[in-house]
């Protein structure tokens, strides 16, 4: 990239962080953040990732003994988050910052790949900008889950290997990145398979291609194998947790996905369209069609762009089947942003013939940003700016008000939106879940319960013996926080705790 292109990208990255980092500290926990925001903090306290407030002793639960060691997902993302917590302290905000750091690395890698494959630094800047402000990037980059770290390492694998001047060292380094992607999340299988296929279909003799693919696979397995010492500590917990969360669901699902491939592709296409919106989906479609036309005209480098964009999308559909977690779309969106950047650069070239390079770049960047505004979170930002000092809009102040009404020492059952906040304040807490696959809190002797909107809908009706105490916030405000506090009857609270059961085998 030229100095001007780097300046554009740095400005846009700074704008993204200035926009979203304050919100990361103000908004309550979202989907799965109750599970995956706390392990990094637990590592600093005890060395292993755990979920301290899910003391399940049910071997049918994927969180069986998760308060002692967590194996539902590979651990690297949690250890990276622990490094951020070591610098910034505990809390949901720092856990989200860890994802944002991975996100910025992913943006730079998208820019590097687009610039290398197109031969244009401006195409790299435009591709990175398109990725930075797309909805498929926004969610994994601002939530406390390991998806973004897996995506960044996966893009690193592509960056090292998908180059004309690669050497064996590059293939090995790409394999290491692939293994680290898998060590963050199983979605790392997508870039791993993508790079493996590219190596097998690349130039050279069959023996040379097989040798490169084998070196890549060996390095990838070595990276993923860093998990083995932790697995050796509790192999029984690994079998139950990882087996139930990943292998048990993905294993039989792959064959069904292949048999029902058209239906799966239609389902995932619909999910993707609903997630990113028609404008961003149209950008990806036009970009991919445009570079496909260039490749058909004989531009060899564009064939590589088409392959990786199409492979990233297709392999993710095979990986997900009918799984509904949309954070994973951050990976194919990264690959699809590259054709968008390449095509936007060609448009800027045309404009630049009569308007000059600087004005052309500014026009195209502005047009991209306008296309990406719908669904970017402007309404959320506006609501928080209008209530900046309102404690109902700051999850930490909101949680302080709730916890102040609970007697010290009382065991609290808090739903996923507030359980981490109660835990941070040093109160005895278990997560208010009633789902045998995860955890059933009803066997715990808690005295008080706290529910946010989702907990009131999904969990509160499943728990008997609760007496309403008070509410906090306005339930009709979609952007502010809301919770209800309940007291549990002494008869219901006297049940035997699951944690009284025997420890797991060693």
Overview of the structural elements:
The chain is mainly α and 506 residues long. Helices cover 64% and strands 6% of the residues. The chain has helices at 3-26, 33-36, 39-46, 76-88, 92-118, 121-132, 135-142, 147-161, 168-184, 189-200, 206-224, 228-233, 235-259, 261-296, 300-320, 330-355, 357-372, 378-386, 395-404, 419-424, 453-458, 490-493, and strands at 412-414, 429-431, 434-435, 439-440, 448-451, 466-473, 482-488. A five-stranded mixed sheet has the order 2-1-5-7-6. Strand 3 and strand 4 (439-440) form a beta hairpin. Helix 1 (3-26) packs parallel to helix 6 (121-132) and helix 10 (189-200) runs antiparallel to helix 11. The protein is globular, with a radius of gyration of 24 Å.
Shape: globular
Strand order of the largest sheet: 2-1-5-7-6
Mean pLDDT across all amino acids: 90
Specify Rg, calculated over alpha carbons: 24 Å
How many E-type strands? 7
The proportion of residues forming helix, as a percent range, comes to 55-70%
